[in-house]
Design a protein that fits this description.
The protein is mostly helical. Helices cover about 85% and strands about 0% of the residues. InterPro entries: DUF2788. This is DUF2788 domain-containing protein. Keywords: Membrane, Transmembrane, Transmembrane helix.
């Protein structure tokens, strides 16, 4: 394997790891919300915060890819 292929594999593995972590965090939050009998409004707030955190992380990745593709980074 070439160095570029190894770097690509490491990058892909890291991104999949973060997806798995976000999924596990979401499942843990869902369990806590169910067991705590949290009202619907509170659940919506919790899920909105979680979604915005994930969206910010994805936006950061897209911005980095665009900058690196354009030769900025």
């Amino acid at each position: 394997m070439s160095l570029e292929q190894i770097e690509l594999l490491e990058t892909l593995g890291l991104k999949l790891f973060f997806v798995a972590i976000f999924l596990l965090i979401g499942l843990a939050i869902q369990d806590v919300l169910k067991r705590g009998n949290v009202p619907k409004f509170g659940r919506y707030i919790v899920w909105a915060v979680l979604f915005l955190g994930c969206a910010g992380f994805v936006a950061k990745g897209i911005i980095e890819a665009v900058w690196e593709g354009g030769g900025v980074g």
